[in-house]
Amino acid sequence: MMKVLFFKEPDFWSEKIEQSGVTVIPLFKKIPFFFKPARIFHLNSHLRFKRIWYRRWEKQLDDYDLLILTAADFSVNIANYIDTLNVKKELRLIFWYWDPVRLKYSPDKVSERWEKWSFDKSDCKRYNLKYNSTYFFDSITLPPQKLVYDVFFVGQNKGRLNTLLNLKKTLEQFSLRILFLIISDKNFFYDKKVFQKRIPYKTTLKLISKSKSLLEFVQQNQSGPTLRSMEALFFDKKLITNNSSIKDYDFYCKENIFIIGEDDINEIFRFLNAPYKLVATEVTEQYNFIEWLKRLVNNVSLSL
User: CB count, 10 Å around CB of 148?
Assistant: First the structure.
């Protein structure tokens, strides 16, 4: 059986990944909170010896057959560092784009030693990446809660603040019960009157359970479904999204998914109160983490 290593900091998701038989190792050492700005500065700089912040995982790499590194702000540094190590040639290295490609971790900054995979069909075509779906976990369940909200949004600002606030005003005109939690992109200083602090994912699950629908608002040029799409699919919740490409996915149906800018906004109340149409189990199962992992292990790239 292939031994898989997933680089990920400890969180709700790392626990779920480990339950699937994958080894999860954090990239960075634990440090006091007041040292974190210094680490961010160093990792963003052109200074050398960035490895002083890394955990001692180098000698463990040859124990595995497949290594998965998620694209993030400092992932290029990690990938380049691994390239300097004397790891076995048989070790498959995968650079996984869970988010749209950004300049900071664009594919051209990662060596050909790495396989580059993405959840976003547009990015796969643009950068010649291998395509795999996004994933979720069928082991996650919602705590029983009474419905309180018609529309629930939670997500980082990412330059979307004004657009999100305008959309909120539009939805409020239809007498909908709305909860918007917009998280600041800054970790230390932010306007608390506008932004919310980060919440644990278990809290997010409670709020999803209280909500009739989830709002997904994708970034510019993004075509792949986000975590909100997966939550809506796995939890039988309606989805409101600005991603018109959602129509290209097998879980799309107009009874469950409302596309902003295409569907008539005046029908939003009727949409939310119409029955949810159950999606076939075989469709949902394709987005389960185990199936996603099988495609990586077997080097099966989905068709675009």
Answer: 13
